[in-house]
Design a protein that fits this description.
The chain has helices at residues 2-20, 27-48, 52-67, 71-79, 88-101, 105-118, 125-136, 141-152, 159-175, 178-191. It is mainly alpha-helical. Helix 4 runs antiparallel to helix 5 and helix 6 packs across helix 7 (125-136).
């Protein structure tokens, strides 16, 4: 502990000298700074880490609220799932469903985009990307087009791939590209008459 304090004091002194050109701090200031850093680290750890039993209980309660159509409380409880929990992707997805039920498209989109940012390989990512693209089609057509294009590139024929090709044609129609629109609608009708 003594070595850590001296090492911290040394580093603190260097930082103060180099960055702020201030005199070397006394030992009380250094100990106080270390104490503050430890408390801050403990608080951050407590916020990020959550025991598995607590996480499961929160998730169960959130699901109960969701099934009872108490979407506001369910949204809140899903947000309380710890960041490093294996339930976090499902909780984020459920949060977006709660936001949709509450007619809060801004929060719905935010949760979809959070999901796509942190869990792009999750099996739900295809559905989430499709729903996000549908929400974006009127507000951010370029981002919607990007999402639909990525979905259209999926190897297996899924409903999301086919619907994305249809939406890409609709976007092209909005932009005035007649030839690619006709081709897109023909492909759509060939796959789903």
């Amino acid at each position: 502990l003594f070595r850590s304090i001296i090492h911290a004091e040394f580093l603190h002194g260097i930082i103060m000298k180099v960055m702020f050109n201030l005199p070397k701090p006394d030992k009380i200031t250094t100990v106080f700074a270390i104490l503050i850093l430890c408390m801050l680290a403990g608080y951050c750890f407590a916020k990020i880490y959550q025991p598995q039993a607590k996480t499961i209980n929160i998730y169960k309660q959130a699901l109960e609220n969701y099934q009872n159509k108490d979407y506001s409380n369910a949204y809140y409880l899903f947000s309380k799932i710890g960041t490093v929990s294996i339930l976090k992707p499902a909780a984020t997805y459920r949060q977006s469903l709660c936001a949709k039920a509450l007619d809060d498209s801004k929060s719905e989109l935010m949760n979809y985009q959070t999901f796509l940012r942190y869990y792009p390989k999750n099996p739900l990512a295809v559905e989430v990307k499709y729903k996000a693209a549908q929400l974006l089609i009127d507000t951010d057509i370029e981002q919607a087009q990007k999402y639909f294009y990525e979905l259209a590139q999926i190897k297996e024929d899924s409903d999301y791939k086919i619907a994305s090709e249809y939406y890409l044609s609709k976007i092209q129609a909005k932009k005035g590209a007649d030839k690619s629109v006709q081709e897109g609608f023909r492909n759509y009708l060939l796959k789903h008459p």
